[in-house]
Amino acid sequence: VFVPWNSFHGFNPGHIITDDFLPIYTLLSYFNLTDKELAMIHIDLPDNNSTRRWDNCQNHWKLCKPYMERFLPLIGTELRKTSTQFTATLDSIPSSSTTTTTTRKEKTRYVC
Question: 3-class SS at 71?
C-alpha cells in the first residue's frame, strides 16, 4: 500500500501517534488494508520561505528518529522500510515471458 506522509512535530510522541500514525492506521483499517505491506514515502517539504519547516522532522531528524523507530511498528512497518520521495525506487520482478530470475529496476507506468 503506497502511503505518502509528512511528519509535523514528529519529535513529540503525542503528535506522531495522533497526527501521523493514527490517521494512517484509520484509513488502512477503513479499507481493510492493515495486513498489507506498506510503502511509506516521507514527503520532504521544499526548502523555501513559504513552508513551515521549523518543526518538521527534516530539521529535527535526531529528535524524530527514536520515535519513528518506536512507533512505526504499531502500523506494521519499520523505519528501515521507509523512504523519501528522493530515495524511493521501484523494484519489480520480470514478467513470466522473460527467462531471467533476477530482480531488476524498472520505471513504473503509474504516476501519483
Answer: helix
